């Protein structure tokens, strides 16, 4: 677990279920206007995300939610990297926190949960793709032992600005 988690902040973490999809979408959509966390530039819909959600598999590629007082506060999903069999032990993670739940240690709790659970899921490598201008997220992953493994220069354009994507990776020990 992460020693930097604030005392007393221990969200309930569980596998996401279909009823969580509206909250997952709302949290994701809340990140779009800031232009830091996603390359989507317009809100997505619950209907448009049903197939995406169905592709998660609790046995190998889960999506977890962190809840507080019964409300979804954040989510973390693990997706297969590059879709080829040789990469079966590598995943890309996505992590989003509700604006009202930020700075409370929930992201740290979710990432610690993923790091702890990954080996039992057959996962040896975690990847995070983060915009180069998203300094808070870069610092967050680096504090958690992720290292810079590469940069994709100017691969995204947001509001007329070309943006780099930094690839961060963490190798896990069984």
Walkthrough of the structure:
The chain is of the alpha+beta class and 174 residues long. It has four helices and seven strands, in the order βααβββαβαββ. Strands 1-2-3-4-5-7-6 form a seven-stranded mixed sheet. The longest helix has 12 residues, at 106-117. The chain is globular. Mean pLDDT is 93; it is low at 1-8.
Order of helices and strands: EHHEEEHEHEE
The average pLDDT is 93
Helix segment tally = 4
For the sheet with most strands, the description reads: 7 strands, mixed
Poorly predicted spans: 1-8
Kindly state the percentage of residues in helix.
10-25%
Cα separation of the termini = 15 Å
Number of distinct beta strands = 7
Structural class: alpha+beta
Cα-atom Rg, whole angstroms?
A: 16 Å
The geometry reads as globular
Question: What is the topology, as strand order, of the major beta sheet?
Answer: 1-2-3-4-5-7-6
As a percent range, the share of strand residues is 25-35%
Which labels suit this protein?
globular; 174 residues; alpha+beta; seven-stranded mixed beta sheet; 33% strand
């Amino acid at each position: 677990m992460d020693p930097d988690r604030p005392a007393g902040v221990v969200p309930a973490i569980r596998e996401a279920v279909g009823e969580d999809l509206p909250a997952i979408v709302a949290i994701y959509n809340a990140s779009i206007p800031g232009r830091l966390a996603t390359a989507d530039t317009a809100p997505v819909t619950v209907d448009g995300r049903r197939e995406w959600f169905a592709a998660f598999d609790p046995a190998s590629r889960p999506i977890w939610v962190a809840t507080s007082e019964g409300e979804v506060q954040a989510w973390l999903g693990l997706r297969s990297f590059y879709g080829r069999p040789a990469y079966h032990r590598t995943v890309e993670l996505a992590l989003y926190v509700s604006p009202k739940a930020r700075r409370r240690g929930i992201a740290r709790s979710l990432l610690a949960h993923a790091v702890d659970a990954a080996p039992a899921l057959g996962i040896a490598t975690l990847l995070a793709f983060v915009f180069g201008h998203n300094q808070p997220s870069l610092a967050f992953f680096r504090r958690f032992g992720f290292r810079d493994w590469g940069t994709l220069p100017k691969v995204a354009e947001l509001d007329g600005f070309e943006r780099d994507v930094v690839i961060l990776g963490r190798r896990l020990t069984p």
